[in-house]
Amino acid sequence: MKNGEDSGIGSLPILQAKGNKPVSCATSPSSSGTSPCVSPSSGVGSTDRVREKARVSRTSLILWHTHQNDVSAVRKLLEEDPSLVKARDYDNRTPLHVAALHGWMEVALCLLDNNADVNAQDRWHNTFILKNGMRSFYQPLSDFFLCSFLTLTFHGPCLGAPRKDETHQWRNGPEIMLCMPLADAEGAKKKNMIDLLKKHGGSSFGQSGSHFEPKQVPPPLPNKCDWEVDPSELDFSSSTLIGKGSFGEILKACWRGTPVAVKRILPSLSDDRLVTQDFRHEVNLLVKLRHPNIVQFLGAVTQRKPLMLITEYLRGGDLHQYLKEKGSLHPLTAISFALDMARGMAYLHNEPNVIIHRDLKPRNVLLVNSSADHLKVGDFGLSKLIKVQNSHDVYKMTGETGSYRYMAPEVFRHRKYDKKVDVFSFAMILYEMLEGEPPFSNFEPYEAAKRVAEGHRPMFRAKGIHPDLKKLTEECWHADMSRRPPFLDILKALEKIREATLSADHSPAYFPAKS
User: For the chain, what is the domain count?
Assistant: First the structure.
């Protein structure tokens, strides 16, 4: 929330779970065996559920690697679990069906060597022998595409398995012959595969197989269903207010049993075009970010009102409150905190897709826990994503964006600027950690920013600060933004200063204090 300074994949594989209850795999299969979702209606106990999830995951893996023609991965899976040769997807198609359809000879041989059923039947109703006699070519093909669509359809923002009320119309439709791997190979005109399957006793019912299935898709990728949250899952019964601004509030709530931080837009502003635009902009940025020193985005409510953004809840609170309670920090503690901030900012500033935070301040830097072990950078409501063509390019962006007390002079003056505005704000925070008070604390925020724009900088008064740390801070708040170091260089300098400070005194007092 902002209130000046003071406001605080295409279709996924659908698998068949125990008891013919459908579930949808919402993650990309990997060799590590990432478990897909399990239907909450499966009715198994916790132990059985774990076992069932593992089974569904392995099923997903072997079907996926078969589709990818990855014979070594298929062989490895079969060595670990020979029963996977009989794995079935939601439509009872085995790995051999998939290999036959695409003509993957090595994979098919591997499966057959592991006793794959050459005449396994799938559940697709797509041969052209109907119980009501022969129809035209187009009607059964149309029926098949209808079946495919209902099976792979999207429900709301997420892909899911078909529900009973959506499938009864075609499940009671014409009774059509089931298909075998050989029918797939014949329908796809894979001559070598046809010869191989016939050699192993393959039979063919009909001529079309299941080769009219929708076009195969790339590996499942995260989409909206990965992060869109149903607001009914959020429990505000024992929520506490973390912060409040002019556009909304930040609450500690509970989501699926886990404490989370929820930024909730005021209902009265949910229809405001600019507010919703800023909200969606922040969500789109956070979805892309993955770093230990960046507050982790968990989900958002974008389809209903009020709009809500959900992130991890960090128990240590923000740096502003921490400094207010602790005062000036020991230099090594300040360096440790500065390293965490710089790591997060170096990640954001990585070219060519640079994210300029534009509101880096103590309130937007959060402590992981009450022990103050680590920091994370958060609140990207004013951040700007730009594609850098040249490292020395500057950009015309909104002036006076952010909090005045930590604002770079070029922003205050409405000049063109780049990612180095974050380096300036970082320097002001580093100063505050060392001195125990905000820069120009005897001035109002606007007046403080004005003094900075006029060339003034806060004075160091604290004793025991390493000269190189002072020098680095002064370089970071240089009036000429081109002379401010990038965060990768700041990290190197801080590491050297840390080592020098440690070697100067090995006493325990030099290690970061625990609150």
Answer: 3
Mean pLDDT of 348-370: 90
Whether the bond into 95 is cis, omega within 30 of 0: no
Asked if pLDDT for residue 333 goes beyond 80, the answer is: yes
Among 382, 198, 403, residue whose Cα is nearest residue 320: 403
| Largest Cα span, the chain | 95
Answer yes or no: is 232 within a domain.
no
Whether residue 181 is found in the same domain as residue 268: no
Q: How confident is the model at residue 7 (pLDDT cuts 50, 70, 90)?
A: very low
Neighbouring-strand partners of residue 459: none
User: 21, 90 in Cβ contact below 8 A?
Assistant: no
- Helix (H) / strand (E) containing 332: helix 331-348
Q: Rounded to an integer, what distance in angstroms lies between the CA atom of residue 494 and that of residue 221?
A: 38
Residue type, 101: L
Q: Are residues 328 and 303 in the same domain?
A: no
For residue 272, give its domain range: 243-311
Identify which of 372, 497, 366 has the alpha carbon closest to the alpha carbon of residue 429: 366
* Token duo for residue 305: 């009102």
Domain co-membership, 23 together with 129: yes
Is residue 160 over pLDDT 70?
A: no
Please work out, in degrees rounded to the nearest 5, the angle formed at the alpha carbon of residue 165 by the alpha carbons of 163 and 170: 95
pLDDT at 503: 82
- Please tell me the distance from the alpha carbon of residue 268 to that of residue 56, in angstroms, as a whole number: 45
CB 9 within 8 A of CB 25: no
471 occurs within a structural domain:
yes
Annotated active-site positions, please? 359
Stretch 440-453: mean pLDDT: 95
Concatenating the DSSP letter of every residue in 82-115 gives GGGGG--BTT---HHHHHHHHT-HHHHHHHHHTT
Which among 258, 280, 311 is the end of a domain?
A: 311
Model pLDDT for residues 167-208, shown as the tens digit of each residue: 333 333 433 345 678 887 887 788 899 999 999 888 765 444
Report the C-alpha gap between 301 and 306 in whole angstroms. 8
Q: Which among 368, 358, 235 is positioned nearest to 308, based on CA atoms?
A: 235
